[in-house]
């Protein structure tokens, strides 16, 4: 299969996709962030700042990694839409951590939105395979959004009091790995595809989403999240060891 993006026909320039996604993000933010944090001005400010910074990171990634006149492709558009949803979810989690309050009904809607983001995670891959438009950029874009999604879910679980600060380790471990790779060049090498890695990632997301659901018992949440943390630590250890063995 030819995975190079140059095989696709010319279409919309990337800035046009960034433009509509900015509009979608603005509408979602207006509908969600302000009502959630309307009693806390600091929470609104923090959530807005988080939204701008995260979307700015996406814009910077697209501008620096994607050919300026090449069609972005429907698979990447699906990922971009998922990114807008994830950014709002993360912003709401930051607002909650800053003192905003969320009703039980709103928490259910938050869980539904998280489920939608999870479903879209499979949609973009299906589109890429069906249209023969898979690319290294698309895979990296999807992976970084997964990491951001997990971090946002961890922050929400902590903010609503379902787990202690230790749950944030689930979302920060990926970024710790990236930081270590900057300091240790032998870690900055591509890893082979791994079913084990994908399975652990799915387990993380599922357990975090279950933890958000209001009726989830505290004991079940603690045990499942602790198991997810152990599995993630084990998975990262195997990857680091694999890279260490090949550092020469």
Task: Throw out a few tags for this protein.
248 residues; mainly alpha
Explain the overall architecture:
- There is one protein chain.
- The longest helix has 28 residues.
- The chain is built from eight helices and no strands.
- With 248 residues, the protein is an all-alpha fold.
- The radius of gyration is 19 Å and the shape is globular.
- Helix 1 runs antiparallel to helix 2, helix 5 runs parallel beside helix 7 and helix 7 runs antiparallel to helix 8.
- It has two domains: 160 residues; 88 residues, no CATH class.
- The N terminus is likely disordered.
Topology (elements, then pairings):
Blueprint: H1 14-36, H2 41-65, H3 74-97, H4 104-130, H5 136-159, H6 168-183, H7 195-212, H8 218-245
- Our estimate of the beta-strand percent is under 5%
What's the main sheet like?
Answer: none
* Uncertain runs: 1-9
Distance between the termini: 32 Å
Shape: globular
In short:
The chain has helices at 14-36, 41-65, 74-97, 104-130, 136-159, 168-183, 195-212, 218-245.
């Amino acid at each position: 299969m030819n995975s190079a993006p140059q095989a696709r026909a010319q279409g919309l320039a990337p800035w046009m996709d960034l433009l509509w996604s900015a509009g979608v993000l603005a509408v979602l933010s207006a509908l969600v962030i302000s009502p959630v944090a309307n009693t806390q001005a600091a929470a609104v400010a923090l959530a807005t700042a988080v939204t701008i910074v995260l979307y700015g990171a996406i814009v910077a990634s697209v501008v620096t990694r994607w050919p300026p006149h090449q069609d972005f492709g429907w698979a990447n558009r699906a990922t971009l839409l998922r990114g807008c949803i994830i950014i709002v979810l993360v912003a709401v989690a930051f607002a909650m951590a800053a003192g905003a309050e969320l009703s039980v009904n709103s928490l259910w809607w938050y869980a539904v939105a998280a489920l939608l983001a999870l479903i879209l995670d499979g949609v973009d891959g299906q589109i890429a395979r069906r249209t023969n438009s898979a690319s290294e950029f698309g895979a990296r874009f999807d992976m970084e959004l997964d990491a951001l999604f997990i971090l946002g879910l961890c922050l929400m679980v902590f903010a609503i009091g379902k787990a202690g600060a230790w749950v944030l380790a689930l979302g920060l471990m990926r970024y710790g790995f990236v930081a270590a790779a900057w300091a240790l060049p032998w870690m900055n090498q591509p890893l082979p595809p791994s079913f084990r890695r994908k399975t652990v990632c799915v387990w993380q997301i599922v357990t975090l989403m279950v933890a958000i659901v209001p009726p989830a018992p505290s004991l079940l949440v603690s045990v499942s999240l602790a198991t997810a943390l152990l599995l993630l630590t084990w998975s990262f250890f195997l990857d680091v060891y694999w890279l260490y063995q090949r550092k020469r």
